[in-house]
Design brief:
The chain is mainly alpha-helical. It has helices at about 5-15, 15-20, 40-50, 50-60, 75-90, 110-120, 120-135, 160-165, 175-190, 195-200, 205-215, 220-225, 230-245, 255-265, 265-280, and strands spanning about 95-100, 105-110, 140-145, 150-155.
Length: about 290
């Protein structure tokens, strides 16, 4: 996905109020309320990439932390600017903390790999869309036939085991969408809630169910069953993204990005770890709460 197409996708997500917040003001600025940015996609992308836009829109206080955050901005715009902020911060970072256990961190010197991941506007767009998509989590019931009888089952987008159950209930044409969302939930849990993902998201029984649903060879299932939960979800998330790409009836630019994220799943996860640690969980954060056990 090239810059022009990425900019067009950004524009499709942004509200009129978002554009007004983004539009330059003062002498020499273009007239109007920001709607003109929809017709100047190059200018829109430059504004999103400008490090100063973060403070202008989100009111960065001392240390660059958001001061209350502009409530007028859509969740998508806020997350887009947070992902962009991560790129700015990682540009000069020598190392990034990595989790070795709940609330335990060690420095990992892989900042160049994270910078390379964020260098593509389409991958930054992917992460912003992912975060915005989980501000409201879908859940409900569906019917599945087991033992010759139809039974109601529940699913939630934050429960990969129950979500994977949909694969046996939906028509074949809908399975790429389920696989894509399974990849999303694996990336979201490991990126935004890594402590939960590592300690509570998957027990041995649920891990075994996911491995069976992934239809991996028995030897590979046995090997992965002993992996820590984060590594297991990384492996499954990348596999689910690739399956979504490969099963889709038409190859698109968006699916190309899905494949790129599959190949760089760990970098995507660690960028989200950085965003979550720095911005999503200050006291009184309005965005996400810990998933229930």
């Amino acid at each position: 996905m090239d810059r022009d197409l990425a900019a067009r996708e950004y524009a499709g997500h942004l509200t009129d109020t978002d554009l007004k917040l983004l539009a330059p003001t003062g002498p020499g600025a273009a007239p109007g309320d920001g709607g003109w940015l929809r017709g100047d996609l190059a200018a829109l992308l430059r504004l999103l990439e400008d490090p100063g836009t973060f403070g202008t829109v989100l009111g960065g206080g001392p240390g660059g932390n958001p001061r209350g955050w502009a409530v007028q901005a859509s969740p998508f715009l806020i997350f887009a600017l947070l992902v962009q902020r991560a790129m700015t911060e990682l540009a000069s970072a020598a190392h990034v903390p990595e989790r070795t256990g709940p609330r335990q961190r060690v420095p990992l010197f892989d900042a160049p790999a994270l910078r390379d991941f964020l260098a593509a506007p389409a991958r930054r767009l992917f992460l912003a869309e992912l975060l915005a998509s989980f501000t409201r989590v879908a859940s409900g019931r569906y019917w599945a036939r087991t033992g010759g009888r139809a039974r109601a089952r529940r699913f939630s987008e934050l429960d990969p085991v129950r979500l994977a159950g949909l694969l046996d209930a939906v028509p074949e044409a809908e399975r790429p969408g389920v696989y894509r969302r399974l990849g999303d939930v694996a990336l979201f849990l490991t990126g935004v809630f890594p402590d939960y993902a590592s300690s509570r998201a998957l027990g041995p029984v649920n891990a075994a169910r996911l491995l069976r649903a992934a239809r991996l060879p028995a030897a590979q299932q046995e090997r992965l069953a002993d992996e820590p939960a984060i590594e297991l979800l990384e492996h499954l998330g990348a596999r689910w993204y690739r399956t979504a790409r490969d099963l889709a009836p038409v190859a698109t630019a968006r699916l190309t990005v899905v494949g790129e994220v599959a190949d760089r799943f760990r970098q995507a996860r660690r960028v989200l770890n950085h965003v979550a640690d720095r911005y999503l969980f200050p006291p009184g954060s309005p965005w996400f709460t810990q998933p229930s056990s």
